[in-house]
């Protein structure tokens, strides 16, 4: 039954991509026939669905023009720079550079596939070599690594609750909860939710299949919030008592506050770095990049799992995405969770008029993250509501294995439980259980059992 579901997914994912105008017609882009063959083959290999026998043009006959076409096919939907046709005098140099980059990516993939434990010594050059590969090769490699460290049929259902809405003093350009944009966003600030209301929401989430409950509060830090911290610890204890994983995102915390949350039973603390260090000042001025990293250090030292990722679509370049991945993958230890958010533009915020991020930026980031951080749970977070099922399925194949589901994210819409459960049934996916650890690396990257 699962093979049939995956075969159906393969055909529908391919058809979905082919319907997009970005894969047809334009000069320098890959033609439909070649795109069908490479898409079908890579998806088939990544799933182990050997029934689908796609025919590929042999690599031995590839030319520099072929490489440019493949790069163009991946780049037309995001800002990856396309290599220009070199003048005759530099043709050999260009060919050697392309071959070296390709060789580096293949070597990194082989090392990642053979790894028995995560590595946190990645260089930006290595991450770039992974990120800028032809997209189908990248997704295939990520799926192969994913199958060594995780059950590819399992995806965790997480639910997020905003326990303190609005009134934040920070100036994050994407966030409707800042007091600086309140006049334009019309978002009304509210007091902290009661322990009883939060536990009722957690119980509802559990009844609908969620195994992780996350709580977010809109403020800069926990300084001087002793009463709120006491109530939040009661929330943590109550949710943990239901047998659920529990995560909070409360802004900056110090070492003592982290220890108190650990004692209460907190599973994970979310504190995103958002983007690259270089681009970060363009998005936020009221909290430094190093302050974010300091909070992650307090969390890690307290023995709490770190949840840290980023937001795509802030106006960053692909190099900034490489920078984000470099920051997170070279932390002293890899985060337990890496959430990937697509900006949901909110009218009234400085980024309220931005165009949505292209899907392939999401797919490239997820795929690269999976190769860099093989044991980490990769969570598709904000913005999933705008993705088709076929796009979500490609993310799962490339290594994403958690989603946020329920009634709402913080201030934006979320896919509902019924919708996601139906999708799981169509694709042969199963909800991940609470506190399930990543399996030990396996040599078997075939079909899930």
UniProtKB/TrEMBL annotation:
<dbReference type="GO" id="GO:0009102">
    <property type="term" value="P:biotin biosynthetic process"/>
</dbReference>
<dbReference type="InterPro" id="IPR006638">
    <property type="entry name" value="Elp3/MiaA/NifB-like_rSAM"/>
</dbReference>
<keyword id="KW-0479">Metal-binding</keyword>
<dbReference type="GO" id="GO:0051537">
    <property type="term" value="F:2 iron, 2 sulfur cluster binding"/>
</dbReference>
<keyword id="KW-0808">Transferase</keyword>
<keyword id="KW-0001">2Fe-2S</keyword>
<dbReference type="GO" id="GO:0046872">
    <property type="term" value="F:metal ion binding"/>
</dbReference>
<keyword id="KW-0411">Iron-sulfur</keyword>
<dbReference type="Pfam" id="PF04055">
    <property type="entry name" value="Radical_SAM"/>
</dbReference>
<dbReference type="InterPro" id="IPR002684">
    <property type="entry name" value="Biotin_synth/BioAB"/>
</dbReference>
<feature type="domain" description="Radical SAM core">
    <location>
        <begin position="153"/>
        <end position="384"/>
    </location>
</feature>
<dbReference type="GO" id="GO:0004076">
    <property type="term" value="F:biotin synthase activity"/>
</dbReference>
<dbReference type="InterPro" id="IPR010722">
    <property type="entry name" value="BATS_dom"/>
</dbReference>
<feature type="region of interest" description="Disordered">
    <location>
        <begin position="80"/>
        <end position="104"/>
    </location>
</feature>
<feature type="region of interest" description="Disordered">
    <location>
        <begin position="1"/>
        <end position="31"/>
    </location>
</feature>
<dbReference type="InterPro" id="IPR013785">
    <property type="entry name" value="Aldolase_TIM"/>
</dbReference>
<dbReference type="GO" id="GO:0051539">
    <property type="term" value="F:4 iron, 4 sulfur cluster binding"/>
</dbReference>
<keyword id="KW-0496">Mitochondrion</keyword>
<dbReference type="InterPro" id="IPR007197">
    <property type="entry name" value="rSAM"/>
</dbReference>
<feature type="compositionally biased region" description="Polar residues">
    <location>
        <begin position="1"/>
        <end position="23"/>
    </location>
</feature>
<dbReference type="InterPro" id="IPR024177">
    <property type="entry name" value="Biotin_synthase"/>
</dbReference>
<keyword id="KW-0004">4Fe-4S</keyword>
<dbReference type="Pfam" id="PF06968">
    <property type="entry name" value="BATS"/>
</dbReference>
<dbReference type="InterPro" id="IPR058240">
    <property type="entry name" value="rSAM_sf"/>
</dbReference>
<dbReference type="GO" id="GO:0005739">
    <property type="term" value="C:mitochondrion"/>
</dbReference>
<feature type="compositionally biased region" description="Low complexity">
    <location>
        <begin position="90"/>
        <end position="100"/>
    </location>
</feature>
<comment type="similarity">
    <text>Belongs to the radical SAM superfamily. Biotin synthase family.</text>
</comment>
<protein>
    <recommendedName>
        <fullName>biotin synthase</fullName>
        <ecNumber>2.8.1.6</ecNumber>
    </recommendedName>
</protein>
<comment type="pathway">
    <text>Cofactor biosynthesis; biotin biosynthesis; biotin from 7,8-diaminononanoate: step 2/2.</text>
</comment>
<keyword id="KW-0949">S-adenosyl-L-methionine</keyword>
<keyword id="KW-0408">Iron</keyword>
<keyword id="KW-0093">Biotin biosynthesis</keyword>
């Amino acid at each position: 039954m699962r093979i049939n579901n995956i075969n159906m997914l393969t055909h529908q994912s391919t058809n979905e991509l082919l319907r997009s105008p970005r894969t047809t017609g334009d000069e320098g882009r890959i033609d439909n026939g070649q795109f069908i063959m490479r898409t079908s083959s890579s998806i088939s290999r990544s799933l182990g669905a050997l029934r689908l026998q796609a025919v590929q043009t042999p690599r031995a006959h590839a030319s520099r023009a072929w490489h440019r076409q493949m790069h163009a096919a991946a780049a037309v939907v995001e800002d990856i720079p396309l290599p220009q046709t070199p003048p005759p005098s530099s043709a050999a140099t260009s060919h050697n550079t392309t071959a070296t980059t390709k060789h580096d990516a293949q070597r990194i993939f082989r090392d990642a596939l053979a790894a028995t434990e995560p590595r946190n010594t990645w260089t930006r050059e290595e991450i770039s070599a992974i990120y800028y590969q032809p997209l189908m090769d990248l997704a295939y490699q990520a799926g192969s690594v994913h199958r060594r460290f995780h059950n590819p049929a399992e995806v965790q259902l997480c639910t997020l609750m905003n326990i303190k809405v609005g009134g934040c003093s920070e100036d994050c350009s994407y966030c409707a909860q800042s007091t600086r944009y309140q006049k334009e966003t019309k978002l009304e600030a509210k007091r902290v939710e009661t322990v009883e209301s939060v536990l009722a929401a957690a119980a509802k989430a559990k009844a609908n299949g969620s195994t992780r409950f996350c709580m977010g509060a809109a403020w800069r830090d926990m300084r001087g919030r002793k009463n709120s911290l006491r109530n939040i610890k009661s929330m943590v204890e109550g949710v943990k008592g239901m047998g659920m994983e529990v995560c909070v995102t409360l802004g900056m915390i110090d070492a003592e506050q982290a220890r108190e949350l650990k004692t209460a039973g907190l599973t994970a603390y979310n504190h995103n770095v958002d983007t690259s260090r270089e681009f970060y000042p363009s998005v936020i001025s009221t909290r430094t990049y190093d302050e974010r990293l300091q909070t992650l250090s307090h969390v890690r030292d307290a023995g709490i799992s770190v949840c840290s990722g980023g937001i795509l679509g802030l106006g960053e370049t692909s190099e900034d995405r490489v920078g984000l991945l470099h920051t997170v993958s070279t932390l002293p230890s890899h985060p337990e969770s890496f959430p990937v958010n697509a900006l949901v533009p909110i009218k009234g915020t400085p980024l309220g008029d931005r165009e949505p991020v292209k899907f392939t930026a999401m797919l490239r980031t997820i795929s690269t993250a999976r190769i860099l951080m093989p044991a980490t749970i990769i969570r598709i977070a904000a913005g999933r509501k705008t993705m088709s099922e076929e796009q979500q399925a490609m993310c799962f194949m490339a290594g994403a294995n958690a989603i946020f589901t329920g009634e709402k994210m913080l201030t934006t819409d979320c896919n509902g439980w019924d919708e996601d459960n139906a999708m799981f049934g169509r694709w042969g996916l199963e909800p991940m259980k609470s506190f399930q650890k990543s399996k030990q690396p396996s040599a078997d990257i075939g079909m899930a059992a």
